[in-house]
Amino acid sequence: MRNVTEFTGAGSRGTIYRWVADGTFPPPVKIGERMSVWLKDEIKKVVEARVSGLPDREIKALVKQLVSMRKQERAVI
């Protein structure tokens, strides 16, 4: 989580989870019973979208696309 907050510039865990809840940040991927991770490529794309000034509605669309791609890739494996 520390790496995620540092990379994004979010001040806290709460900010990250608020972004996830409102759809402007990709949710973590569960890799164990009590462990989740974020995918660096997804985070990078969302940060780049924010820096470029995209409005929240476009960032939400990007996040939906990223999550959809994640599910499609998992289905192929």
Task: Name some characteristics of this structure.
2 strands; two-stranded antiparallel ribbon; 65% helix; mainly alpha; 9% strand; 77 residues
> Which strands sit side by side, in order, in the main sheet?
1-2
| N/C terminus separation | 27 Å
Count of individual beta strands = 2
Low-confidence stretches: none
Instruction: Return the string of H and E elements.
Output: HHEEHH
Overall pLDDT = 92
Separate helix tally: 4
Structural class: mainly alpha
In percent terms, what proportion of residues is strand?
5-15%
Shape: globular
- Tell me the helix content: 55-70%
How can the largest sheet be summarized?
A: 2 strands, antiparallel
Radius of gyration: 12 Å
- Structurally, the number of domains stands at 1
Q: What do you see in this structure?
A:
α3 runs antiparallel to α4. A hairpin with a 2-residue loop joins β1 and β2. This protein has one domain. It is mostly helical. It has a two-stranded antiparallel ribbon.
Summarize this entry quickly:
The protein has 77 residues and is mainly alpha-helical. 65% of the residues lie in helices and 9% in strands.
What topology does this entry show?
Elements: H1 2-8, H2 13-22, E1 29-32, E2 35-37, H3 40-51, H4 56-76
Antiparallel strand pairs: 1-2
Helix pairs in contact: 3-4
